[in-house]
Design a protein that fits this description.
Four copies of one chain form a homotetramer. The first copy, chain A, is α/β, with parallel strands linked by helices and 323 residues long. Chain A has helices spanning 2-7, 23-31, 43-52, 70-78, 115-128, 140-153, 222-233, 267-279, 305-320; strands at residues 13-17, 36-40, 57-63, 84-92, 95-99, 110-113, 133-136, 163-167, 177-181, 190-197, 209-216, 239-246, 254-261, 282-290. Among the domains of chain A are: 95-181, Periplasmic binding protein-like II (D-Maltodextrin-Binding Protein, domain 2), CATH 3.40.190; 202-323, ACT domain (Alpha-Beta Plaits). In chain A, the strands form three sheets. Chain A has a five-stranded mixed sheet, sandwiched between helices. The longest helix of chain A has 16 residues, at 305-320. The first copy, chain A, is elongated and about 90 Å long. The two termini of chain A are 42 Å apart.
Chain lengths: 323, 323, 323, 323
């Protein structure tokens, strides 16, 4: 079913956090190279495009992003009409400093880029071009686009910046000179992106899956967080991500955005969900999907599907004595 | 079904830890006054009578007994062919000192009784009859029976004891003089008895029920006992009794005999059993039955049948999206 | 000591996330109205000013901020030379739409502001001025400053935007017209700010305190998070904030930024810290300080200073028997 | 100090659960062969002898005993003037069937012994001598003593039993014929005995120690038992024995008798005791002493003395910043 959908993805529309040239586009190329790529100005707009049916899928950053969107993604996924995650992609983060042809590194005094990209490169840039100043842009690609456009029309001096910081993989695409590559302060950083769809389809279990949830706590003490986490631990379900998000009605009230290892079709994950539904005032299932890294889910003793099934059958057998 | 059985209990045979006159008989009179009462010399024999079909039920002490049988009951219930508990009774424990007619308190130098009865009265007897010595008997009633028999035949002097310590409720039945009543050191003690049957019948849920289990731990550290107990706590199931029993293959290996509040038909208890079956190497279901004290089971938030059912339905609904 | 510092705060330099007119400045005015206020372009620079000794204190947002800086604050506090939190402030978040004198709401097609401010008002603005577009600025105040400057010089048309979204409390200060007030989508939101200093001073216990920590987990399963949280729960210490932060060396490795209720001088908090130090590979103490809301710390049974002291004295007494 | 005491133990009086010939005597011979051995009729009397100063030590069974005394020991240790455990011994349990010289196995119809010994051999005896009946005695040695005495005076026929079941190690000492050896149903069973003294001396830490405690629970739900056990688990302290004992004021109220691995001088054990003192209404320290099996205490990561000391020093260092 999902496979069928993927096979015809050439005709599908994928909204993404654009513009072309961003890291999100790199994720999209991994996931659905032949789909129709529809750039969106922000995460909310990309997700709303799927909600409205203007796109079948959206690709947005969810973890450790350099272009923002992480908090926005967590919040936008969970407010408004329901959406689910159906896949994920990992992209290595590396930056290049680009400028109009002929610009020398020592000419650069102002660099346009997204504030998060700036934050990730400020140390390296301070060494390469001491005294350089940040000019904020809405994306890494936006600054480069302005540079290229003004370089073409010959009025680059009026821009207020001489260079842009862009995703390394897209450096060549802007038609600009690359002054430096690998200018990120932390080499090897990776951003995680999710593929989002309308509810109704859960990709089949592969044995190397993740399940994304949003859970509200019953109250705000350490005990209630323990109670929530014990629902996972009691069934041997590990978490690969947990992030608190303010619920928004008051400081100190938190929801938790969680990625659990395993799939809705796994008995231990179903049992953990059942427990969460009982003890938490609100639980939102946001999808089960294959892990991008393909690492198989660890199964602790007593938590296999067989262990759950045979325990349930044992109790059912005892109960037949009731009649 | 169970009601039908109880209605015709006049024709049923109830084995009990005898002889007549013991506290166990008092429990039996509470539970099944019209049944055929079959005294047995010890707990193992009483339970084996049910196993062999020589009796339909057995009544034996299980908690805080003065006549022994508690450890024996826990162990005998769980070795051999399976048995289940189908009811319980509570009996107040009070003792009387009895002797052949004409005997005065100051004549008493030796007192026959079961060692556990002696242990419960030794302080009071030491004040009533300083220097008095214990002569062990197999039950509280056995010493009194010998006294009565020898008093009748006129050879009481050869017995080696002048008085017996018996269950207060049976003091009059022995045909002996009562030298003192209420000689127990702790006033108000209660012993708990269980009614045991062959498997196949679970009394219906009343809302004020207990469930008896035997559980082995996976290994011997504090963590494994925690893991076992969390199966109850995670579902809001309280315990009214927990006793360790050596497994017998080695010092330091323990089983736990447990009375949990609630009935096999309660969803939270079924969920706790399912969890135990997964994490413990051995779980024995020993019956669900009405509490003698009639106290309704407390239901914590999120642990009602409705809470479990709606959580299971929620997960089932999510899973329908899988197909 | 701290009191002495506060008394002379008129001569102290407070770096803050500027420029003048931001919500952070409103927090600073609460905390130290008479201090020297030193605006900084970003959180890292503000904190580094304290590290270098260019300022005695910094005021930066830490929770639920509309101008960013939250993740940046959590990360910047914990990398580089050590800093501690010595106070906090709460500021209600409300926005105004301002423009050059004479501008009408229907003239507004582009609005300059910080992206996070835009995110918080986009719904209301879409109703007030359908089709309005966002122009990113480095702060709420920066857009307004440009508007005011260009309005004065008569070349506002060249700016590329007709209005700015600013902190409501500073709307009047820009010398611009207020087109609309209270344009935030969520009324009543509050941002929390912290006052940061070099280590060496811990404000005295008031009975209504918080303690901020950064804790790394030993490994990445649900069990290790439970183990960490149990250190608090076992001593009756509640948490008022917990946020996961990627450690940065790999996806899926998390540190937790935590605000615990209570003060380093509280025995239960000291005991929790002792436990954390044993079970976690890294624990960073980031300060104990009075709560802005003045709510007294709840003390559960068995967790008062007396309970800890008497337990320690009991064990010490037992140990004296060792010698 | 303790060593000094042991060196002069030849002059010490050791009360024990007698008479001579019991398994308890075998334990005493292991522990203090040269001491003065003072047999006592029951556990309470043996312990009271130490309380009154009539003996320096008592040796009594505490776990898995065939001659009773286990529950009695647990209860008697903890009521009355304080006592502590200063050592332990393990004795293998094996029985022999003895009779007056000339008696043949087929002549045996009644066997005198302690009821618990009978319980441990009834299966084997039923095969050796079908139809054989139990005659209760106050100890295994008591029945044999009567047999030997009556055999000497030639009136054995009046006794009412033809054989006795005795501790195998003492079979030869009674001057009777051994009809069968190794008649216990479970081969290899071991009983554990403790050496009890007045408080004031704690044997020094050996690295292979046990600590015995009695702990009351704050209330009776599964949660309160968890809370108690977490005090051990949180400090990496394993339990080698846990037994519930009814508190006696009401059915369903339990104390727990616990042997924890480790010594009062171990930091993790001291920390667990501190926690218990805070969360439980009653904690009784009953001694730290070397393990009979010499197995060294396992030390989990983060629970060594160093881990505790360095955590305490870290917190103390933070607190010095307070002044």
């Amino acid at each position: 079913m999902e496979n069928a959908v993927q096979q015809e993805s050439g005709t599908q529309r994928y909204a993404f956090l654009g513009p072309v040239g961003t890291f999100t586009e790199a994720a999209l190329v991994q996931v659905a190279p032949a789909a129709q790529h529809v750039p969106m100005p922000d995460v909310v707009t990309a997700l709303d495009a799927v909600r409205r049916g203007d796109a079948e899928r959206a690709v947005v950053p969810i973890e450790n992003s350099v272009e923002g969107g992480v908090s926005a993604t967590l919040d936008a996924l969970t407010s408004g009409d329901p959406l689910v995650v159906v896949g994920e992609a990992l992209v290595e983060i590396s930056f290049a400093l680009v400028a109009a042809p002929g610009t020398r590194l020592e000419d650069v005094r102002h660099v346009a880029t997204h504030p998060h990209a700036w934050a990730q490169c400020r140390g390296t840039l301070a060494r390469l071009a001491p005294g350089v100043v940040h000019v904020p842009a809405t994306s890494t690609a936006a600054g480069a686009a302005l540079l290229a456009e003004h370089a073409a029309s010959g009025d680059a001096d009026e821009l207020g910046f001489e260079a842009a910081l862009v995703a390394a993989h897209s450096a060549a695409a802007h038609g600009l000179d690359v002054l430096a590559r690998g200018v990120e302060d932390n080499v090897g950083a990776v951003t995680r992106f999710v593929v989002v769809a309308r509810p109704g389809t859960v990709p089949p279990r592969t044995g190397a899956d993740k399940t994304t949830l949003l859970v509200h706590l019953p109250h705000n003490d350490a005990g209630s967080l323990l109670t929530m986490l014990e629902q996972f631990a009691a069934r041997g379900v590990n978490l690969s991500r947990i992030e608190s998000r303010p619920i928004g009605d008051a400081l100190g009230r938190y929801a938790f955005s969680i990625d659990a290892e395993g799939h809705l079709a796994d008995e231990r994950l179903a049992a953990a969900l059942t427990g969460l539904h009982r003890v938490c005032p609100f639980v939102l299932f946001l999808g089960s999907y294959p892990r991008a890294d393909g690492v198989a889910t660890a199964v602790a003793p007593g938590t296999s599907d067989d262990a759950f099934t045979s325990a349930q059958e044992w109790v059912a057998g005892l109960r037949r004595g009731l009649t």
